[in-house]
Amino acid sequence: MGEKLPVITNKEKKHLLNNINGDFHSAELTAIMGPSGAGKSTLMDILAGYITHGVTGQININDKVRDLSAFRKQACYIMQDDNLQPLLTVNEAMMVAVNLKLPSDLSLSEKAKKVMEILESVDLGSDRETKTFELSGGQKKRLSIALELVTNPQVMFFDEPTSGLDIVASKQCITLLKELASLNRTVICTIHQPSASILDLFHHVYVVANGSCMYQGSVNALLPYLSEVHLTCPTFHNPSDFLLEVISGDHGDYSQILIQKSKNGLSQRWRSEIPYSAKNGLREIYQTPVVTQPPVQLTCIKDTPNTYSTSFGHQLLVLLKRTFLVISRDKTLTYNRLLTHFCIAIFIGILYYGIGSEAGDMYDNFKFMFFSAMFLMLTSFNCVTTTFPSELPIITREYFNKWYSLKSYYLALTFADIPVQICATLLYGSVTYFLTKQPVESFRIVSFLFMCVLISLVAQSFGLFIGACMDVKNGVIFGPFCMLPFTIFSGFFVQLNACHPSMRWLFHISFLKYGFEGMVLSVFGYDRPKLPCNSEYCHYSRPEKFLSNMDMAKSTYSLAVIFLGGLIVAIRISAYFVLRVQVRRSRGKRR
């Protein structure tokens, strides 16, 4: 790999890597080292194919220019944060991985056997039924590795694999990576400041500083390399600490000297071959081999039209099952939502008890329906605004590592939450409808509940769209403001005929107006007979008179259904394309 990496940062072109060179061998564990901001993660992202834009130069595999699409099928990238589904058990997470990453014609028993082999190899066999949020940091890291071992990748990239781990867990993690490399894999990881014992586990060190290579070679040759320029590491001093001191200029400015000495990564003088005995004589801390199948040569695999191991339909089924499982265990998103709708329904039903059967309470009934529309809109919207921001790191990892297509993930996530939202809406609508004593006519009941569901699904769609556009903080703050115009122009606060002509178009795009009108029409429309009046005079004894005064006499239920249904489809399609952009941007942000 060579040449430069120009990246646009704050509208200025900046070279993050400068004409660096290097090579990484199979059966070798490589540490990319350097201080913060040196370009370690940028180099790793380029090698893994995580960053492709703004890069010049060439990456070869076995002396041939890399075919990135084919390469990504044989490689995996395990990032610094262990982005796992917290409510799945270890075994469930592994079964999702094998069902997505292995051919669908493989039997369930074969998949289960492979899962058990991999879990035993990473010392997680006894934790199969443990939920991932209950795992320790080291166990989460091993599970992240196990998930990618399903496809037996030949090149493995790790970004700061020891981050957040104690010295014991860190050493176990790097020892595991060394075992993976011993099976003829190329294993590359970034690491900031390893201890001396951890540094000794690496075969190869690649040192980056200010976007240039200051050393490429074996661990044993590092100190002799530095001593050739009169930099002597004190006795009992951690070599990695001394190296960072040199890079930081604590011992003088040796940056250009070391870059020239290593020929910016081109020199092979300090590389050393790993003896065959060393490859097979590693100290084992796990009892079973990591994989039972021999690795394949990178050059033997060519790109195929099928980007993923399984079909779109199979991916959708697996992801739907996973999402339903997560939703069923999520108390906040599922059970609390149902409980909230039920409790508010009881409260509102008692507050407006019996208003639907008396002409004198017509306007109170009108206010009840508007509150119901508002409540359903806000709860449906707020429940999903954090969905994509919280899931984005998981999507990015799994999508980049070729688990599934983004379309299958998006459809699974959006479809899975619809039944829960519909159940919550029907629960609220049914309880309030009968407590407020609305007309007991089947077509009115169905029309009212159906309109409630449409309002909820439109608001949910907007929540998904806002969640795809913004992070959690901005979504929570600015999301409700996006709902404000729909509320103002709903026809409750200001009616269409009383509004300034220049603003009337806003009524025609307010989904809450159409939903609210649909609810009112389902109760008061369709030639409902005169309501009984318990007072001397009831101005709105006839529902058609009330509809006329509320500027709803010419409104139609079917138009509301068509508008809201079309809006649901349009917003969800838009949210998908926004999510695509966000996934790509999340990769670019790592620069």
From TrEMBL:
Where it mainly occurs, coarsely classed, is membrane
Q: Does the keyword Flavoprotein apply?
A: no
Q: Which family does it belong to?
A: Belongs to the ABC transporter superfamily. ABCG family. Eye pigment precursor importer (TC 3.A.1.204) subfamily.
Q: What membrane topology is annotated for this entry?
A: Multi-pass membrane protein
Report the protein name in the record. Answer: ABC transporter domain-containing protein
UniProt keywords (A-Z) are:
ATP-binding, Membrane, Nucleotide-binding, Transmembrane, Transmembrane helix, Transport
Indicate where this protein resides in the cell: Membrane
Pfam families to which the protein is assigned, alphabetical:
ABC2_membrane, ABC2_membrane_7, ABC_tran
Q: Which domain of life is it from?
A: Eukaryota
GO CC annotations on file: plasma membrane
Q: Which InterPro entries match?
A: AAA+_ATPase, ABC2_TM, ABC_transporter-like_ATP-bd, ABC_transporter-like_CS, ABCG_dom, ABCG_transporters, P-loop_NTPase
Q: Which residues form the ABC transporter domain?
A: 2-235
Q: Which residues cross the membrane?
A: 338-356, 368-389, 409-436, 448-468, 474-494, 506-526, 557-579
